[in-house]
Amino acid sequence: xxxxxxxxxxxxxxxxxxxxxxxxxxxxxxxxxxxxxxxxxxxxxxxxxxxxxxxxxxxxxxxxxxxxxxxxxxxxxxxxxxxxxxxxxxxxxxxxxxxxxxxxxxxxxxxxxxxxxxxxxxxxx
Length: 125
Prior knowledge:
The protein has one domain: Response regulator (Rossmann fold, 3-Layer(aba) Sandwich), CATH 3.40.50. Helix content is 37%, strand content 17%. It has four helices and four strands. Helix 3 links the parallel strand 3 and strand 4. It is globular, with a radius of gyration of 14 Å.
């Protein structure tokens, strides 16, 4: 007999243009059935621009650099999501799915996701 169905952890990745870093993060973590993953950018030229609805949806918001934290604070100063922002400190020097970028993302994101999964009482399949 299986336990109750758990809601996936809702994860938002944010970088500037949503083309390399956050898009790579979304691609590599979206395969995990315990996660619901989206990505967005802070620039008006981003593939998908971050908005208040996305922030409110997310259980955790991973940003790539401190400038993204400042952007979110400036644009969404009253958002409760600001308490759920984690800066990964990954510079904008990688192409989409670059092996070093995927390694950095896995190393820096996974410990946070493990903690969130435990808080959500989720079991990995």
